[in-house]
Amino acid sequence: MNRVRVGVQAEDPITLAGLTSFLKTRTELFVVANPAEADVIVFAADRVNAKILTDMRHSAQQWSMPRVLVTNELNPADVLGAVESRVVAVLPRTAATGSRLINSVIAAAKGGAMMPPNLLGELLKQVDYLQREVLTPKGLNASGLTSREVDVLRLMADGLDTAEIAQQLCYSERTVKNVVYGVTNRLNLRNRPHAVAYAMRVGAI
Which of 18, 65, 68, 160 is the 20 to 30 A CA-CA neighbour of 86? Predict the structure, then answer.
């Protein structure tokens, strides 16, 4: 079995040293000094506050791999912010046994997630609120695309040109071009292939 490469981050040097020392003893894992080389990052903090959330967000902008968060306190209102920072597993620090931590890291490396039931429930509530109060009123879905944009991008992915898409959807060619321009401009996408790739990556098509 390939060893999971793990980067370690913590709010204080003592926690960092202890966590790094423990993870280095595990044969399933390989601790890397450079987070950019990691498959998973383990982030430990006694309490997740605004500064910690900001640090995690900046870290996620630099390195896109999943995070395992070990903490004693995570405000339910901050769960969505943590997930947006690529956190896929949350372990209460007091209950973070060696086996649970290792299982969480391995699950994260395989694309899985592990979260306490109360935080998972809060996350679902926040996502539902975001969908109902923010996205739906603007005609958007969770991917950030409108149903019209999804229709156009799906046909583009099938290889149809502007005229063929217009005919298929009973739009004018101008409308199709405006839809493509709108989505590429709003999401900072470079061109049509980039727009199609984005739609596929978020599971919209």
Answer: 18
